Amino acid sequence: MGQLRFSLLVWFDSHGSGSASFYLHRKNGNETGDGVNPLRSMTGSLKIDLQRPIPSGDPLKAIG
């Protein structure tokens, strides 16, 4: 179950980066498909130290 939760963290990280890129692209007066490439970024590293075991069986609650 811990791997699934870690995968969700990576998914949220990458999609948040993509959303920020799209926002900046539009803020600069560009639109999707206008031939201007949006800013691209990626996470260079992501390290998580678990302090205690992640309970399995509890529902996952995303707060943001």
Mind sketching the topology for me?
Layout: H1 2-27
Characterization of this structure:
41% of the residues lie in helices and 0% in strands. The chain is an all-alpha fold. The radius of gyration is 16 Å and the shape is elongated.
The percent range for strand residues is: under 5%
Oligomer: single chain
What does the main sheet amount to? Answer: none
**pLDDT average, as an integer?**
76
Please report the total strand number as a whole number.
0
Shape: elongated
Measured distance between first and last alpha carbons: 21 Å
How large, in whole angstroms, is the Cα Rg? 16 Å
Low-confidence stretches: none
Give a concise summary.
With 64 residues, the chain is mainly α. The protein has one helix at residues 2-27.
